[in-house]
Each structure stands twice: as C-alpha cells, then as structure tokens.
Amino acid sequence: MKRTGAQIIWECLVRQGVTDVFGYPGGAILPAYDAMLDYPIRHVLVRHEQGATHMADGYARASGRVGVAIATSGPGATNMVTGIATAMMDSSPIVCITGQVGSKLVGSDAFQESDVTGVTLPITKHNYLVTRADDVAPAFREAFEIAASGRPGPVHIDITKDAQQSSCEFDWDAAAPKKPEFRPDWSASPEDYRRALELINGAERPILLAGHGIMISNAMDIIRAFAEKANIPVSPTLLGIGSFPASHPLNLGMMGMHGEAWVNQAIQEADLLLAFGMRFDDRVTGTLKTYALAAKKIHIDIDAAEINKNVRVDVGIVGDLRDTLEHLMPGVKQGDRSKWIAHVNELKGDVAVRDIQNLPDDGHLYAAHVINDLWRATKGDAIIVTDVGQHQMWEAQYYHHDKPRSLITSGGLGTMGFALPAAVGAKLACPDKEVWVVVGDGGFQMTMCELATIVQEQIDINVAIINNGYLGMVRQWQEFFYERRYAATPLINPDFQKLAEAFGLPAQTVTRRADVVPAVEAARNNRKTVVIDFKVEQEDTVYPMVPAGAALDAMIRRPSPSPIVETGADVL
Amino acid sequence: MITTFAVYVEDKPGVLTRVSSLFRRRAFNIESLTVGHTDKPGVSRMTIVVDTDELGARRIEAHTYKLVNVLRVENITAGPGVFRDLAMIKVAASAESRTHIMQLVDVFRARVVDVAPDSLIIEITGTEDKIDGLLEVLRPYGVLEMARTGRVAMARGARSTTAQVEAASGPADEDHNVFHSV
Ligand SMILES: Cc1cc2nc3c(=O)[nH]c(=O)nc-3n(C[C@H](O)[C@H](O)[C@H](O)COP(=O)(O)OP(=O)(O)OC[C@H]3O[C@@H](n4cnc5c(N)ncnc54)[C@H](O)[C@@H]3O)c2cc1C
Ligand SMILES: Cc1ncc(C[n+]2csc(CCOP(=O)(O)OP(=O)(O)O)c2C)c(N)n1
Ligand SMILES: [Mg+2]
Fold this sequence. Notes:
The structure holds two protein chains of two kinds.
Chain A: E1 2-4, H1 5-15, E2 20-23, H2 30-36, E3 42-45, H3 49-63, E4 67-71, H4 75-78, H5 81-89, E5 94-100, H6 116-120, E6 126-130, H7 136-148, E7 155-160, H8 161-165, E8 167-169, H9 190-202, E9 206-210, H10 213-216, H11 220-230, E10 234-236, H12 261-269, E11 272-276, H13 282-285, E12 296-301, E13 315-318, H14 321-328, H15 338-348, H16 351-354, H17 367-377, E14 383-386, H18 390-398, E15 407-408, H19 419-429, E16 435-440, H20 441-447, H21 450-456, E17 462-467, H22 472-481, H23 496-502, E18 507-510, H24 516-524, E19 530-535
Parallel strand pairs in A: 2-3, 2-4, 4-5, 5-7, 6-7, 9-10, 9-11, 11-12, 12-13, 14-15, 14-16, 16-17, 17-19, 18-19
Antiparallel strand pairs in A: 1-8
Chain B: E1 2-10, H1 15-25, E2 30-37, E3 43-51, H2 54-65, E4 70-75, E5 81-92, H3 97-107, E6 111-116, E7 119-126, H4 128-138, E8 143-148, E9 152-155, H5 161-164
Flavin-adenine dinucleotide (FAD) binds at residues 90-91, 151, 211-213, 216-217, 237-240, 254-259, 277-279, 281, 283-284, 300-303, 306, 320-321, 388, 392-393, 411-412, 414, 473 of chain A.
C-alpha cells in the first residue's frame, strides 16, 4: 500500500506495539504530527524535549519495553541530547525520532538545521539519517531491534521533511531487519564454566555483586535460587537495587561510594566476587589499586567490551545472564557459608546504633526519616523515581526495594532533572502502580515545567521534594574536601507549594516528622498528583562515604553515636 | 604494543566517522587508519593501527563489533602478514645531488615519479621502517614535502576474509536475533 513517510512512521510504531509517545512538535516534524492523528497512539505533549527523552527512558526502565520520544529539528533535537546520554549510560532502550530539514537543504545551514546525527553518534547505540520515504520502515524496524536487544540502549532516527512528505510503497515484511551479520562467538566454553564452578564451589568468602543486567536479563528468580543454594551473600549496585529482595537475609545492602561500610569491608575481605550484570563503575570500586585484592573474580556480562575493562577478572563469561546461570546452576554445590556470613554481620558492628533511624527524635526533619516513612506508608510497593544527589543516596539506603524495576534512577550519567519526567513515563508504562518522585530542590527546578504535562495529561503520581536549601551533594563535597566553602550551592527557592498550586495541583509543606506519614497518606488517597515540599535538615550528610579515588574501605563513617537507641524502631 | 586490525565495513556514508569516533571516544590512539574499497561491492576495508596492550586489543575488537555497520574485525598483528605503507617524498635536487639521490632511490627500490629542475618526487612502498630509512638518508638533501598513506595490511595465505564477508542484505531468519551480541 502507498503511504507517506510520515504515515509509515506511525504504521511502524503501531506494529512495534507502541502505545504512547512523548514529544514536542515543530516545523521539520510537522508532517509526522499531522499523520499521527490517524493512528491509535497516545501522544504526551511535554514542556521540554529533555522531558520527552526522560519519559521514554522511565517508560522503558519501568516496563522493559522500548520508550519513544519525538521532536523537531535543530533545538528540539539538541534538547534531547541529555536524555539520550542518560539512557546510553544506563542501558535503557529508547527510540528518539527527530525531524530534519529537507534533504536538499542538508549541509546548507538552513533554518533549524543542525547535524544532530553527528551530535548523537557517540551517545547512541546507533543512529540514522533518513532522507527517503523508502528507508523509513527498514530504519524503524532495525532501530527497535537494536534498542532492545543485547545490551539495550538508545537509537536515534533523524528524518528529513521531504522523506516524511513523499510517498512510497509500504511493505512491513520487506522491511524486516537485515539478515544476521557475522559476530564472533564469545560465549563461554565448557572450560570457562568448569573454572567458574570450581571457584564458586571452592570459595569461602564469596559475595555476589548484583547489577542492573539481572533485571535486563529478567534473571531475578535464578539469581535468588543461585544465592540460596550456594549461601552467598548479595550486594546490589545502585542500579541493581530490586534485582534481589532487600528483605532477603542474604542481602547485605548496596555497595560502593555510599554503600554500607560493612559491605565494602566485606568486598575487600572476600575471596571471590561474582559480578553479575554489573560494570564495576568507579562509584562501585573506589580506587582500583586496592580493590578486592584478595578476591578471584568471575564476571558475567552480555557486553564483551565490559570484560577486563576496569577490573581484571579470572573468569569472564560473555552472554545473557539468565542463559549463563541456567548453565551454571546444576554444577553449583550447596554451600555452608555461615562463618563468613556471621563475620560480615559482625562487621556491621554498632552501625545500626549510629543510624539516624535509631537516634532519638531531636525535633528536626531528616531526609532519611522522610524516605523511611515513605517506604513504610507505601509498604515498599511503589515505584520510586529519584533524581540525583543526597536524596538519591538516602533513597537507596532507606527505601527497601523487594521488587525489580521499582527503583528508577539515573546512575551512570547522574542527570539532575531526570526524576519528574521519568516518573511520568513509568506511570504510563505501569498505570496500576503507585509512582513516587523523590527529588531534590535543585533538580526539581531543572524539569519542573513537566508539572504542566502532568496536569494536561491527568497523570497520577506523587512528588516528594527533599528540600534542604542546597545543592546538597555538592555542598557535602565542599564540607568534606573544600573547607566548607559553599561556592554556589545555597539555593533560594520558590515556594514549592504555591508553585504546584499555580499549576493546579494539590500541594503541602511538611516541616515535622510527625506530619510525614499523614501527608504521604493524603497524597496516596488523592487521584491527582500531589506535590509535598519536605523542608528537611539543611546541612545533613550522606554517610558512609568513600571519598572519590580512595580505597573502598577508607570510608567516612557515620559519626559516633549518642548511644541512646530509640526503642521500637526498626533496625534494618 | 603496535596492533593492526583489518576492519570490514559496509560502504555507507558516515561509517568511517563511526569507527574513528569510537576510537577517539574510548581513548584509543590511532597511529594510522586507511580505508578503501575491496573486491566486493558495498564492502570497504580499513586497516587500523593502534598502540595498546592485549586486553585493550580485545576490547577494541568487542567495541568495534558493536557498530552496526561493521562486518568483520580481524586482529592481524600476530599472524604472518604483509604490511605496507606508500610514501611520496619531494626532495630538493640540484644538478650535483641528483645522481646521488637516484642511487639512494635504487638501493631502496623506490621510484622517481616526477623530475623538476630543482626537485624530484620519489615514490616508495614498503614497511614503515623502510620508508623511515629512506627518509633519513634523504633529509640532508632537503625534504620539501611528504605524503604517506599509512599502513595497509593483509594476512598471508589462501584464506580470504572478503569471501566470508557479506554485504548485509536480504530479510532476516525469523528465529535468529540479528543483534544477538550487543
Ligand atoms: C550521586 C551518585 C552516587 C552513586 N553512588 C553509588 C554507590 O554508592 N554505589 C553504586 O553501586 N552505584 C552508585 N552510583 C551509580 C553508579 O554511578 C553506576 O550507575 C552503577 O553502579 C551502575 O550499576 P550497574 O553496573 O549494575 O548497571 P549498568 O551501568 O546499567 O550496567 C549494567 C551491566 O549489565 C550488563 N548487561 C545488560 N544486560 C545484560 C544481560 N542480559 N545479561 C548480562 N549482562 C547484561 C551491561 O552490559 C552492563 O555491563 C551513584 C550514582 C550517582 C549519580
Ligand atoms: C544536570 C546536572 N548538573 C549538575 C550536576 C552535579 N550535581 C550532582 S548532585 C548535585 C546537587 C543536587 O542538589 P539537589 O537536587 O538539591 O539534591 P540534594 O543533593 O540536595 O538532595 C549537583 C549539582 C548533576 N548531577 N547534573
Ligand atoms: Mg537540595
């Protein structure tokens, strides 16, 4: 059948199973927008194209399905760059569509022309400049395949206006992705498996480092079976949170820069690290010179380029985690590691006593309180989408995630402004889930314009602003490493409650701990998005902390306690 | 360690940029990169020389295979291979020095491809060492200009990689995941 390039875009999206797209129109993409009205796809009109990319990203992370964002040429496309880079770093499958000036004008500095495929080349898995209607369908089919397969990531399709306007024969089947190209077989050999099993079964002090790849591979059940069978304690990365239940007795808590001190200590003492679907980010390892020197390392990753990138490993297995573990499982022997586990528990020491949850109420509101109360009130069952900063780390420490894909956060790029739009995407992907944004007062102001999108699209999420009057995480570095010289970190903020109300949203300000749970409950019972401004302690610190570039066990720990334990508090 | 890759790619616009951008982004230093057609239509061949170690070389291979337009990557450093560079060297030549220079050209099995009243253009193919050697002995006469292609390389023996490389075309096998690696 004859279709215009613009129609083919939507024909393809519908056939790919896309139901929602996030976008913002403009001249070069107008033909596509015009055609859109004839297709059964919901379009969410954002307020900034960065928001569209984060929404697509949040949609993808919450569901595992490819998220789609769309924008015009030039400034529309360049506004997408941050969102694309964010998705690239965290292996999130999105397809970004942009309009481009007419193919005859490409290269002439035409109005709103910009070489966006040049710009996105190093931050996408692949990109396309489509200049003919005939090339639209093959590009789209291949783009979805690339975005979702292997190590997922963003794909960008730039389509000239004339390619949208001209017509051609549309043949979905003929546009199927090309036949397999040669790729070397890097999958594990029987010898690799044998060595891996020998190390696993022989280890006395093993730790399983649970990464984001577990969720991408949908391997949660087999990881759990593996850990339970071999009795191996598990520590997630920030992006691995949710891949192994937080409430499981073998879950030690997060590793790394703001991970628990005992976890990092245990990693340094371990004799075997099982790195499953994680990439040894520098926030995870601290300085490599002293990282886990006593441990043998087994690394399983679908991306061959990750093996031996940061950490030299003894066995590197390239492949999908689930497939690989299915191979390994039968050879894994039941293990008794009670001595090791008891030792790790000893490493916890008095840390629970020093934990802010267990200190007496001094009348101040702490971010950790807000997040722990949010966890309680939502019964740990919400999808939490965080921004970047101190609140992000407290979320990781004090909201205990038992379910996969229930924490959505920008880890690799650390993109402030991510949370609010990503949460919109998560909600559209999972309409039946409760979705909360946990965001700093700084990051909220980067993308808060999307509150208008929320109103227009009648989206029901809730927003917890952790308002400390500072770019808190940067202030913390200044406190520790720059003699408390607070250069450009104090914030003079708008009244967030009034601001939300101006958007037409219910809002509340909370300053006392006793009011946290009632405010959260009120928001949960409201069918609109509710914005809560939690005014928390201003100069609070995220403990523990490995200073950048220091050894993993050279942590700045929680300060010594006033040794009173509030009775009845949960010790977790 | 100087490492040489032969990289077969689809002959499409922008593919050279994708490959070179990858090396730049991953902070691998390209010593030389040449590209040209192969005997197969639609397939280009690059010879890329980088200074890296063994693990680095393996990561380069893995990264390069992640580029969609890449058909085949071969590390041809270790096996027996033929490595060639071509240079054109313009050297000042007076009536007196001309014969001396011609003798040097003979010794190096190079060729004179242009003669002007006070200069010569010499063409030489060979390993980088050989070209460097000629350059060294010509310097005293005054090297005016030089252009070098950078290394092209080929593994010895009957095996043909181009024969195995298909310019990707045609529909996919239903049950075969095209991008099964990454
Ligand atoms: C302020 C701040 C502080 C931070 N502090 C910490 C911290 O204390 N601790 C911490 O852990 N992180 C921290 N991070 C996050 C950190 O920067 C990284 O984003 C994070 O550690 C990456 O986790 P990952 O390796 O599990 O996930 P990713 O970076 O997403 O890597 C996933 C890996 O899994 C592989 N993979 C994908 N699919 C599969 C599959 N099917 N099978 C097998 N493998 C697969 C991928 O190839 C990749 O190598 C912090 C970030 C910020 C912004
Ligand atoms: C777009 C962007 N710009 C700058 C930074 C650097 N940065 C990291 S955390 C942070 C402070 C965040 O402040 P806020 O949003 O108030 O959160 P808090 O740390 O106070 O919880 C900054 C500026 C970043 N991560 N992203
Ligand atoms: Mg703040």
